């Protein structure tokens, strides 16, 4: 999680759990909303550094790359022949 604050450089996102900071000014507007990018970067930081949950449900690593659409509920994994 993070909180939004403001300093002389503009709006910044402050990590709740450490001193990590994302500065909205440091993101390139040509790539989309800097604020959205900063929020995403902070979510990634929280997940990677603190194991925090995300609004974007992460797909478990062991299910990635199998081409399966993961939905809620039971996922049937075909048995090997
Ligand atoms: Zn942090």
Could you characterize what this model shows?
This protein is of the alpha+beta class. It has one domain. Helices cover 21% and strands 19% of the residues. The protein has one helix spanning 34-50, and strands at residues 2-7, 10-15, 21-23. A three-stranded antiparallel sheet has the order 1-2-3, covered by helices on one side. The longest helix has 17 residues, at 34-50. It starts with a strand and ends in a 31-residue tail after the last helix. It binds zinc ion. The site of zinc ion has 7 residues, from helix 1.
SSE series: EEEH
**Number of structurally distinct domains:** 1
Q: What portion of the residues fall into strands of 2 or more residues?
A: 15-25%
Span of the ends, CA to CA:
45 Å
Overall mean pLDDT score? 81
Describe the largest sheet.
3 strands, antiparallel
What is the CA-based Rg, rounded? 17 Å
Strand arrangement within the widest β-sheet reads: 1-2-3
Briefly note the structural class of the backbone.
alpha+beta
Count of beta strands: 3
Bound molecules: zinc ion
Oligomer: single chain
């Amino acid at each position: 999680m993070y909180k939004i604050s403001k300093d002389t450089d503009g709006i910044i996102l402050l990590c709740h759990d450490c001193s990590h900071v994302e500065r909205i000014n440091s993101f390139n507007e040509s790539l989309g909303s800097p604020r959205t990018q900063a929020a995403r970067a902070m979510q990634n930081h929280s997940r990677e550094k603190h194991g925090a949950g995300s609004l974007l449900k992460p797909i478990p690593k062991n299910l990635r790359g199998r081409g399966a659409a993961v939905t809620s509920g039971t996922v049937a994994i075909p048995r090997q022949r």
